Each structure stands twice: as C-alpha cells, then as structure tokens.
Amino acid sequence: MALRRGSSLSGLAKRGLGQLHSELSSTVCAAQAEATAPLNGSFSLGGVRHASQLAVKQRMRSVQNIAKITSAMKMVAASKMRVAQTQTEKSRGMLTPFLTMLGDLPAVEVEHNLVVPVSTDKGLCGGINSTVSKYARGTLATFEGEGQQNELIVMGEKGRAQLARDRSSFIKETIADTQKVRITFSQVSAIAEELMKTEYDVVRIIFNKFQSAISFKPTIATVLSPDALEKEVEAGGKLDQYETEGPDRAEMLQDLAEFQLAVTLNNAMLENNCSEQASRMSAMESSTKNAKEMLEKLTLSYNRTRQAAITTELTEIISGAAALEG
Amino acid sequence: MLLSGSRLRHQKHGIRQEGKGLTHQEQQWSLGRMSSSAAASSYWRVAGMSYLKYANLCADMVRSSLKEPNRSKAKLREAVYYRASTWKDGKPEKQVITDLTVTAAEEKVKK
C-alpha cells in the first residue's frame, strides 16, 4: 500500500517535473532555433536520465572542432591575402597604361563575344563565385539580345559547376587548377594563347576586383581582338595622339592586343584570387562566430538538462523515503 | 599558329639547354630573336610565334642568364600549370594538363 502510494507520488512528481521540463525546453528550444532541434524531442519526453545528454555532448564537441577548423582557415586566408594583395597591386601597374592608351570600350559594336568568367577552384569563400556566374549570365543574355554570338571559356571549378547547369551549350572550354602552383605571367600567357585559339572580336573577362578586405566589385574587362582594335583605332581612337616607331602600325597593334589580353587576364586572375582570400577570411570569421554562439547555447542546454536530471533524482529519492516513513 | 602544351614544353626545354639539339624550327626562332629589332616584319612572327610566346621566351632567356641565388628565385616565376578541357555540345571532352613547372622539367630529364 505504502509502496503503491509512494510510486504514485513519485509519478506525480515526475509528471510535474516533466511539464516543467517541456516548458523549459520549449523556451530553450525557441532560443536555439534549429541548433538542437533533433535533440529536444528526446529530453522533453520524460525529463530524466537518458541518452540525449550524450548526444548533446557529442554535438558540442563537433561544433567546437568546427570552430577550431574555421578559425584556422581564417588565419590561412588572411596570410594568403596579404601576399595576394601585393601581387595584385603590382599587376595593376601593367594594366593602367593600357587603359590610358587604348581606353576601356565595353560598348564596342562587334559580332563575336568571348566571355571569360574567372572563378575559384575551391569553395567556402562567400558569394564571389555566384556573383561572377550571375554577371556571366547577364552578359550572355545582353549580347544574345543584341544578336551577337557568344562563347564561354570558364576559369575555375566553381564557375564551371555553376554555369554548366544552365549555360552548358555556350561553354567552349574550361580551365582549372591555375592556382595549384602559382599564378605567373608565363602561365597567364599560355592561357591567353588558349583563348586566342577561338575566333573572337572581343574578350570580356568577368572577375571580382579587390577593393578592400571586405569589398570586392564584380568587374567586366573588355579586350579587343587585333582586328577589332585596328578598326577602333582607325575610327578615331586615342592611339593616333602617340608618335610611334618600329614595325608598321598593324603589326604593333597586333602585339599590343595580344599583350593587353595577357595583362588584363593576369590582373583579373590576381584580383579574383585576392578577393577569394579576403572573402574566405570574412566567411570563416563569421562561421567561427556562429559556431561559438551555437556552442554557448548547447552548453547552456546541456547544463540545464543535467541539473534537471539531478533534481529529478533527488525528488525521487526524497519522495520515496517520505513514502516509506509514512 | 599556336603550339600544344607538349610542343611548348619541348621548345622551352630546348632553349634551356643553350641551343644544344634544337630542331630546325627552333633554330629559326633563335635566328628571329636575334634580328627581329632590325626587321620590318619580325622573323618570329613569320616563324609562327605569337608576341606572347616571343616575349615569354625572351623573359626565360633573361632569367636563365641570372646568377644564383636570384636565378632559382626567378625560375619559380616560370612555372606554368593548368588543366584545360574543351567542351562540345554542352559536354566536357578530354582534359589536358599543362605542367611546365621546374620539378616537372627535372623529372622529364631524369626519365
């Protein structure tokens, strides 16, 4: 009799605590959003000792490890960015004379476009690749609308994956692993020669221009083919203001056009590389922050559950003892 | 006219050996390199080289004429490595890896 009463009492106590738990868990749950969503179900059931604590602990450990990895990645990206930044700034020195001498002609009337989106090979670097793909799609759509021919040569694995989904018919060639060793001018020249195998009037290179560690501007650089450049100069370009010597002008323009392509591509790849590192740095910083926040919430819920389990056990013992006495 | 990766490698390799065992075409190129400043239409272009190839060859020559330790430092800037694949009808075709790094060249010599 006494035992039965005892058990019913403890049952009551359990139920009461169970309610308390479910209230507690619902408030904690709201705060944690989805962080512990799969785990909450288990501890709101009875509110006493069970495996959920272990699951939370495992989760805490994995979140902690992720935070460590992301913060390490941030450090790596930061140091890589510093190197890339000096390289990028140096490469601008080769590009600027071309812009002052030949100008940038994005609105030039041509028949055949070669669109070259420069993307990264590795992920986890924020939205810079989606920006490039978006601009590439926009460029294709614009010139398609004007009745011009378009072709794509995609640089980088990520851009390839994104553009192959819906623009695969435009893709003529993909180039990847350019950063595996390092970006050198010799390498860029070899790639520029790959580009020159295509019949084109104008190359449009799309990349993220590095401005600061937190700002990258999607940019489209326009490079004319030797023939198109000659037409443009004859139509009244700035080049006639310069006095030139050496080989005849057509040949010089061909040299210039080739060199301009390599220089612009070199700059685009370096700028994009720099933006990639900077973007990765801020992406990893925020993911480290998120992981730490999540860890805090998990720790809180873990401690609460543990404390609640202890309280339940104590209540059970006390009520059991009280039942025996009565 | 452009050269494939393997031809380019061969050509670079040949130049590195200071003119030893050059093919006929390469001899033509080295002739062109010497006298291009005087010619009205450059010999290297007549021989089928692009400006970029010519400029990079000149740069390679300057690099290999440097003294150590600057030379090996500059050699690092000669590295070319990329993977290209051509696409047809929305599908990628065979991949071509162009590897002209210093280690790759050394391995080739060992073989």
TrEMBL record, chain A:
InterPro entries assigned: ATP_synth_F1_ATPase_gsu (IPR035968), ATP_synth_F1_gsu (IPR000131), ATP_synth_F1_gsu_CS (IPR023632)
TM stretches of this protein: none
Source domain of life: Eukaryota
Membrane topology according to the record: Peripheral membrane protein
Keywords, ordered alphabetically: ATP synthesis, CF(1), Hydrogen ion transport, Ion transport, Membrane, Transport
One protein family per Pfam: ATP-synt
Gene3D superfamilies (UniProt xref): 3.40.1380.10, ATP synthase, gamma subunit, helix hairpin domain
SUPFAM superfamilies cross-referenced by the UniProt entry: ATP synthase (F1-ATPase), gamma subunit (SSF52943)
PROSITE patterns reported in the protein's UniProt record: ATPASE_GAMMA
Localisation: Membrane
UniProt record similarity statement: Belongs to the ATPase gamma chain family.
HAMAP family membership: ATP_synth_gamma_bact
Designated name of the protein: F-ATPase gamma subunit
Source organism phylogeny: Eukaryota, Viridiplantae, Chlorophyta, core chlorophytes, Trebouxiophyceae
TrEMBL record, chain B:
Annotated region described as Disordered, given as residue ranges: 1-28
Family: Belongs to the eukaryotic ATPase epsilon family.
Domain of life: Eukaryota
Name of the protein this chain belongs to: G2806 protein
Membrane spanning stretches: none
Pfam families reported in the protein's UniProt record: ATP-synt_Eps (PF04627)
Coiled-coil segments on the chain, per record: none
